[in-house]
């Protein structure tokens, strides 16, 4: 992993796996709480090296604007092997986020702006992220129960210290909104990290399950997927 600035050379060429379970609970029409669990491996469902646990609260101004505040723990283990100690990065994080939506016919675009405060055993860092997400329903005019859709995003990661550019992440996949309460989204992720004047890329198969406990109560249309 790249958080520590030491790319895992032995596994970089392998196709990794990236698993996400996202759970949301609507408290009121404008408020919801969320929890997300992630597990990543350097090889395809082998050599697990990373997990994260996070949660928070969202506030929806209207269908086009929302705020989110979150907190999480992120742990990266040494490579190779599954959860091999010593731990190479142990992170505690706060973040604040603004999401804005706009539409072009059936295509929904989501602009996400995030500011992160990150604490490691080795010190503190800030990070700034921008993600452009898009989704197109394939058998309907919007993403609703029994709808297949195509989703894609690109995200930039920046810091306030040189060399400033930290990471680029690209995703493309196809999803299915099973019901108001469940959706599943398999896809492909390419992540490029830049550390200490050295760049390294990594390919992942990503599988996301979203559980919306009160999905029929939330009036805000959103693109299913992970909150990372």
UniProtKB/TrEMBL annotation:
Task: Give a single Pfam family match.
Answer: DUF2490
Query: Which species is the source of this protein?
Result: Terrimonas rubra
Q: What is the designated name of this protein? A: DUF2490 domain-containing protein
Q: Spell out the InterPro entries in the cross-references.
A: DUF2490 (IPR019619)
């Amino acid at each position: 992993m790249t958080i520590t600035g030491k790319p895992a050379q032995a596994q970089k060429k392998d196709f990794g796996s990236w698993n996400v379970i996202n759970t949301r609970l609507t408290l009121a029409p404008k408020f919801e709480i969320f929890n997300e669990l992630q597990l990543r491996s350097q090889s395809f469902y082998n050599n697990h090296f990373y997990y994260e646990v996070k949660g928070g609260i969202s506030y929806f101004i209207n269908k086009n604007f929302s705020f989110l505040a979150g907190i999480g723990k992120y742990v990266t283990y040494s490579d190779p092997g599954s959860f091999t100690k010593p731990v190479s990065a142990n992170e505690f994080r706060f973040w604040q986020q603004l999401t804005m939506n706009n539409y072009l016919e059936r295509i929904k675009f989501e602009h996400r702006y995030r500011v992160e405060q990150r604490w490691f055993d080795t010190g503190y860092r800030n990070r700034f992220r921008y993600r452009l997400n898009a989704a197109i329903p394939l058998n309907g005019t919007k993403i609703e129960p029994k709808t297949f859709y195509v989703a894609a995003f690109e995200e930039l990661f920046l810091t306030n210290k040189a060399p400033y550019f930290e990471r680029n992440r690209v995703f493309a996949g196809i999803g299915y909104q099973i019901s108001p309460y469940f959706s599943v989204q398999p896809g492909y992720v390419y992540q490029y990290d830049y550390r200490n004047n050295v760049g390294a890329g990594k390919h992942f198969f990503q599988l996301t399950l979203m559980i919306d406990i009160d999905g029929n109560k939330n009036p805000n249309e959103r693109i299913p997927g992970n909150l990372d």
